[in-house]
Structures are given as structure tokens and as C-alpha cells.
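# nightly structure sweep
# worker-07 picked up a monomer target from the shared queue
# config: single-sequence mode, recycle default, output format = C-alpha cells
# input follows
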Amino acid sequence: MPELPEIEILRRELEKDVSGKKIKTVEAAALKPIRRYKTKKLFTELLDGKKLLGLERRGPYLVAKIEGGDALVLDLGSAGQLVRAKTARTAAPKGTQVTFTFTQGGLLRLVDPKGDAELWVAPLADLPTLPEFAELGIDPLESSISWADFARIIYHRHQKLKPLLMDRTVLAGIGPVYSDEILFAAGLRHDRESDKLTEQEIRRFYRAIVETMHDAVKYHNSAAAQSARTSGDPFDEEHSDHLKVYERDGDTCRRCRREIVKSRLGNRMTYYCEACQV
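# output follows
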């Protein structure tokens, strides 16, 4: 699942490629990724011939600004990727849902084998009022909220810490991978209640959120990470060495040398160190 750091790196990479380019054609393989429209034409005619003026990230969403005041919004879902190609002769990967061809040459393909990514166009000025954006919580890569304000937010939630981290109305863009990594960094168990944390634990928790997200962006932007990519897409990179607990059950904890374990919380697996996280 692409999470906030991966989406931010993707934004930075695509910003260089697509800003200033004019869309020649848009082809949708099916209505599923553009399900807000009754026909493919209703979607594609909003973009054909339009110039992309820039790319920004709003929480977990990518937003491409379009000449005329509109914006193309992209939700990558649980497994969506954006794959670049130089020519149409490059074979489209399995699961390609939407293809953008540019007048200057080159293509950008939305590849989504699970089929839950979504694209839509809306007035740029209206985005803050749309439910998808209005309900977003703190952006750990952008927000300057104090730990005290953060404490007030989580005290009113009465949630277990892992579901809280993955709640978009609390924190925008954290999923199963970085929720486990944050909790390890903070030394907290996934099933602790948010309103039962001490002041010291809240400070550690908040610091772990910010530092883990920023460190992940630095990692993905490193020379080693970039050289590991095969399609210019950060989601195809194997970054297990960067992760300290996620899917490392059976490995030795890097902090205390005990074994990393996994357990189920709700319908998800969680990975943690029983000795380090309390």
C-alpha cells in the first residue's frame, strides 16, 4: 500500500516530468477508475488538450493542476502505481487502467491490479470543501502542530494506537507499514489506548510520527533507493532493510535483540517487539 512517504517521493519525481506538458489523449480501459463519470468521454474530454501546470500532494492524494482552474485528483488506492514510458510501443503492464499521452512525447500509465484507485477532475478552488479533503487529519510531512495540540486530538479519540495512526481523519496517509514503524520508534504497543498515554509517551509518540515520516522520505530519495527502481516508480522498490519491524517477524530486534513477533489486530497483522514496546 503506497503511504505518505512513497506518495511524496512520487510527487517530486513526476513534478519534473509532467509540469508544463500538454495532454494529447487520455484512454481509460474501463469505468472503474473513473467511476464518478457515466461514460469515459465525460472524463477524457475534461483533460484532452489541457496543460498540466504542476503537481502537489494533499495528504494521500496527488493533485495535478490543470490550465483553466481545474485539478486532476488521483487516489492510488491500495496498490496503484504510476508508470512512465517513452513511447506507446512500450508494452503496457498488466492492470493498466488509464493512459495519458503527451504532445511532447511520452506516456504516463495508471497501473492498478486491484482496481481501487480513482481519478476525477474538480475545480482546484473547491478541493478544500470536498469530503475527501475536508475530513483529512494532520499531515505529518507538512503540519507544524505542537505536541500539546496533538495530545488534545488523540485524548478525545479513545482508539487503539495502530487504528488511530491509520485513521485518515486523524493522520493523513499512514498505513500498515509505517504505523508499525512509528510504534516501534515510540516504544509503544499497537493495542494501547490513545487516552491512556502519559505525557512522556505522547511526546515520544508525536516525535516518532514526524521523524519516521521524514526519515522515510529521505530514505526513498537516497541514491541507493533511486538506483533500485526499475520504472522510476518508488513503489516497485524492495526496502525491507529500511524497515525495522514490518514483516520482520522472527528476526532479531535491532534495539534489544529479542525476536520480532506478529499478531492480529482487527483484520490486520501487526509487527512489534514484545520487549521494547510497552
